[in-house]
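Try it yourself: sequence plus UFG, in.
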Amino acid sequence: MPPLILVVGGAGYIGSHTALALRDAGLRTLVLDDFSTGFRGALLGGDCVEVDLLDAPRLRAALATHRPAAVVHFAARCYVGESVRDPGAYYRNNVVGTLHLLEAMVASGVANIVFSSTCATYGEPDRVPIEETCPQRPINPYGNTKLACEYLLHDFGTAHGIRSIALRYFNAAGADPQARLGEDHRPETHLIPLALAAAAGRRPPLQVFGADYPTPDGTCIRDYIHVADLADAHVLAVQSLLAGTGGCRAFNLGNGSGASVAEVIAAVARVTGRPVPHRIVARRPGDPPRLVGSTAKITRELGWRPRRSALDQIVADAWAWHERHPDGYAQ
Ligand code: UFG
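Structure, out:
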């Protein structure tokens, strides 16, 4: 029987795409989710257990019952602004939840974990493209909690032999190329879905948060990576752990090139054939001008390459999902 992979947070955006990719790669999956932000419609019929990471006894029982070969851990709160207003919720969910998960893994002898980290752990980098060796100096509680989890992985590796890969995502975007899965956050705060909804006339004009940044067109530059490429990287990371590669490793996961907010708006107009109503407003606090990752390390060590992360491809796949599911997943 193929190895079982526990996908924690597998009803969410990146987790659901990854669960599908793991199954496509011939692995078995079990999603563990509390459905606080994920959707049952994103499971696509895959097996699931409903457990809250803060419920340590039930979590331990789930790990002991299923004894997965590896865990892929996505479950977290992920809004920078909300983390500033309510840091306690972020430390509880992200750090305490991850601590419970690692303790449950140790108790059941599960040694392998792939962890969703973020470029937010770098804060405002001194130079781009950002390499994994750049100092990690987060500038908000969300980034702090993800960095704290990376420390947990390191220390549980030393003490208990946990083998880990932290993937530091840049801007995840796009949707399953067959439009079976897509991006549905409530509330939605991300640029591409908001721009698509504005183009479709389903939302008010897009607010562009600042056009006075020190970038060529004055708008912020980000490194957008297709969620299907992200999912592929998780499959490679799991396979590397299952092959017995040890240690505590971290890789950037971006597409290696940047696009400005203005370039994203132009891409949305091109792909949809509709103008994107928008207006320029004040900067959003905490937005660095330019975040672009170097992906040389993951290409070198895991053989990963982005395949669908050209901006128009990302937008086209996100648009196909949006057209087919204008109101997102059924509740
Ligand atoms: N933007 C707008 N208008 C909007 C939404 C976004 O102009 O309505 C701009 C932002 O200012 C930013 C860019 O579009 O320059 C991308 O913004 P997103 O909110 O889509 O993504 P972020 O770069 O803010 O966030 C991403 C991840 C977070 C992670 C963060 C790390 O989604 O989970 O990177 O910096 F924490």
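One thing you can check immediately is this: The mean pLDDT is 97.
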